[in-house]
Amino acid sequence: MTEVNSPPRLGGWTRFVTARPRLSLLVALVLTALAVVAGSGVADRLGSGGWEDPNARSTYATKALEREFPASQPNLLLLVDSGTASVDDPAVTAEADRLTARLASEPGITGVGSYWQTRSPSLRAKDGHEALIAAHLTGDEKATNDTLDRIAPTLRGTHGPVHVKVGGIVAVRHEMQTIIKEDLARAEMIALPVTLLLLVMVFGSAIAALLPLGIGIVAILGTNAVLRGLTEFTDVSVFAMNLTTALGLGLAIDYALFIVRRFREELATGADPLTAIATTLRTAGRTVLFSALTVAVSLAAMLVFPMYFLRSFAYAGIAVVLLAAAAALILLPAALLLLGHRVNSLDLRRLFRRGRPAKVSGEEGTGWARTASLVMRRAPFFALATTAVLVLLGLPFLGVKFGTADDRQLPSGAESHVVQQHIRDGFPGNPGGGLEVLAEGRATQAQYSAYKSRIAQLPEVARVDGPLVKDDSAYFTVLPKGEAVDSAAQRLVGDLRATDAPFTTQVTGTAAVLVDSKHAIATRLPWAAALITVVTLLLVFLLTGSVLIPIQAVLLNALSLTAMFGAVVWVFQDGHLSGLLGFTSTGSIETTLPVLMFCVAFGLSMDYGVFLLSRIKEEYDRTGDHNEAVRHGLQRTGGLITAAAVILAVVMVAIGTSRVTNTKMLGLGIALAVLMDAMIVRSLLVPAVMKLTGRATWWAPGPLRRFHDRFGLREAETERPERGAGLHRYAAPPRSATSHDDPADKNGDGSPSESGGVRAIR
Length: 762
Hints:
Strand 8 and strand 9 form a beta hairpin. The chain is an alpha+beta fold. The protein has 24 helices and 11 strands. The chain is elongated. A 5-stranded antiparallel β-sheet has the order 2-3-1-5-4, with helices on both faces.
């Protein structure tokens, strides 16, 4: 063993981060302050849409109709309630006409129309006591929000004999942005103190507990500044702020937990702070780097998709992951070097020990060691049982139905939701479910009539209105017989696009947007999956030098997500627990949500997987004992991974308290995924599978073994056995004399391996 007083061997990175620790922290403080200034007001610049493919035919048609026929695309609706009187009452009519004229006179508004002008039955409620005024607000999302902020206060409320509520797409999105900002502030107020309490319980020391929290705050503030900068060049979804908070706290705490825990282990063996930092960065630091890369790759896969809703999560996720890793690898070592043994100060747990001594480092994790031994003794049972349970929990996902986000994302009392619900329940036809067919090219009235007749003959069509002609363009409104986005409506989109016409036609509407979004995701999903799989396989191979372990990691990580997907369908699509959780079920899942949840949850699962595998690999390199390495790895990281998962789950549950359904689904679903991964997959399934694969776990063919020898990650600087000893081969490497393996697994000579002069990390 290396003498404690021997000079530490400092790598280049260690020298860099420890050379001027006070200066590093001062610079970080200044940069964080600048990030606060740069990121201020970012929420006001974020959008609440982005679910549609910007290159789709439906998107083209929507923009063309907005430009040529703004009245065909109303995004503002005024619900006029006449109380006990009829909407046709002269006093009601006069007041409604006044409101319509007032709305038409406002700048930034076009295409104003009302029931009282058109006498259209679709704009009048079946009971005769409500009717609609429709308008189109021009400009981008920020411009429409500004217009709505200006006019809504003077429009809503009581006007003579009528009462007015404001709804429509613009109002829904504006209200969603407001609610998300309020909910995010509340989630942070919940998550921060609870997280600090959990960290104190994990570390005991209040000083050690504050470090991960500080790293998380730095990552969040830095990412807000990055998002603010991105809004100058591209659209960014307001939903991305939730991921910023969740991953900023969760991953920063994960990385800081791993580093602080290893630093304290090294101090407990008698190392001085500088030596402890050097060893920590060689081991836990490299693991954090690999973990950050795997999470970033999983999130980067969302850049493959054209919807800015998904791309926004990639922007936010990659930024917060890299910032969290950078803070953990630069700022945290500087802080730990300055603190030294004071990192253990203010041990609050001693208040509850009642005189009992604290456990020394070598005694920690004995429960996890017993768990690992039990699982490996009954490996076939645990492998089959856990797999069966996870598959069973995922079965509801086989019945998933995809839909589009609408006002029902909002709480039932939100004004824009109330307006849309009144329209759905009380107005004739299928409000909001119509399809618009844009016809471009010169045509005669006879040609328009013939085309209209062909449309009317389609089996799913209830009614065709139009055409409304302007220059060389026209549009028809087609009402389907069923629901707005059911399978029949989606088939109708295809039928309309296939109907012969003497001019160019494009179809838009809710069902058309859904069809195009599903197509965009389906065509790009294989590329995203391939990116995640290939890069994950490569990174895990560089970490372990094994061919089998990366394949196991990908498959087991995917398996760990089954419970999340099953719960999403059972709870949010089918509506179970909707009363308890306070949301309105639409009977479908928004198309982009499963993609988002898979990328985020898969990355977090790999985060925990890398933590466990790195410690197993470190012990295997030191002793050459496969079973002991698995047992030791779970012993040293089981509690850490569980604590990290619980803390991240707390943050995600806080996000899941949002009143917006998609955010609630994201938060609660990922919380379930990380808990299942940490408590079932990492604790039971991984050790069981690694026991079953035995020493073959570490096999790699000669060319790949040589590639890993040159480029791979080694956690500890141990002397590698001579090539004949078979490290990374199927044959067993030298064994530790302290092996806990079954007798059948022992080498013939049972000789221990030497550690090459570096202190064994226990």
